[in-house]
Design a protein that fits this description.
The protein has about 280 residues and is mostly helical. The protein has ten helices and no strands. It has two domains: about 50 residues; about 200 residues, MetI-like fold (Orthogonal Bundle), CATH 1.10.3720. The longest helix is centred in the first third of the chain and has 46 residues.
Length: about 280
């Protein structure tokens, strides 16, 4: 009888200790979140000093003058802009394709659960950090100097910069995949490639597709900026109009770019819905 009572008392004590431990962990998580929010607020307040209110107010008349000079938009050269717009569209697709093709193996190497060795994991992570640290404009300038003007350096710049972000998202998706199907495939004698194809990729395919579509939409917007450094596309036409102060053409080109971004966003939404069916 005493042993039974002691056993019940011990179980209750263990349960009580577990509840206390869970409460302490929840308290620590709450404190961490509050600390992060406070830190973010402090940084936000510190950044307010970057804004010069007097300069902003004095710039309003100049902005209004430029806006009035942009009206009405001049679409008289729209035929000349069709080819650069198509170049921009395919530049974004090519850049995204480069990032996806290279991002899958690099993402596998950058995930703790799939990296073949710790050294490979570290090297892959450093590579991704380096690719994300270099803006696509800087890559575009370097590649334009290396291979010349046109859409090719733009596509390469978008692909290399996107690779750093795409592979990072891929790696995080691989790390958060359910390990049970992977362990079952390994226990059945599957090769590492078979494990990836049959146990890992089916789990993370929706996340990978979302990442690819998001990056494609981003690359279309970024490809317009690469025209500034001579990487072709509609951005090159926009920069040419800005240099000669043809603000009405600038307004027309901005509306065309807006329409292109809207189209790409619509196509991305269609592909997402098709994926869910």
């Amino acid at each position: 009888m005493l042993d039974a009572i002691n056993g019940v008392g011990g179980a209750a004590a263990e349960k009580y200790a577990g509840i206390i431990a869970e409460n302490r962990a929840a308290t620590r998580r709450t404190q961490l979140r509050v600390g992060l929010v406070v830190l973010a607020c402090l940084f936000s307040l510190a950044s307010v000093g970057l804004f010069d209110v007097d300069r902003l107010l004095s710039g309003i008349p100049a902005c209004w003058k430029i806006l009035t000079e942009m009206m009405p938009p001049d679409f008289s050269r729209w035929r000349d802009w069709l080819h650069p717009l198509v170049d921009t569209f395919f530049m974004s697709i090519a850049g995204t394709a480069i990032a996806v093709v290279l991002g899958l193996p690099l993402g596998l190497c950058a995930a703790r659960t799939t990296a073949p060795h710790a050294a490979v994991y570290t090297a892959a992570r450093w590579t991704l950090n380096l690719l994300r640290a270099i803006p696509e404009l800087i890559m575009g300038i370097f590649l334009v100097a290396a291979v010349g003007f046109g859409a090719l350096p733009g596509a390469l710049a978008l692909g290399l910069h996107s690779l750093g972000m795409v592979a990072k998202f891929f790696a995080e998706a691989f790390e958060h995949a359910d390990p049970k199907p992977i362990e079952a495939a390994q226990a059945s004698g599957a090769t590492p490639m078979q494990v990836v194809i049959h146990a890992l990729l089916p789990q993370v395919t929706p996340q990978l597709i979302d990442t690819i579509l998001y990056r494609w939409e981003y690359n279309f917007r970024a490809s317009t900026l690469l025209g500034i450094v001579g990487a072709g596309g509609i951005g090159f036409e926009l920069m040419a109009s800005l240099r000669i102060l043809m603000y009405q053409e600038v307004a027309a080109l901005m509306l065309i770019i807006f329409a292109g971004v809207t189209l790409v966003d619509f196509l991305g939404s269609l592909l997402r819905r098709a994926q869910l069916k």
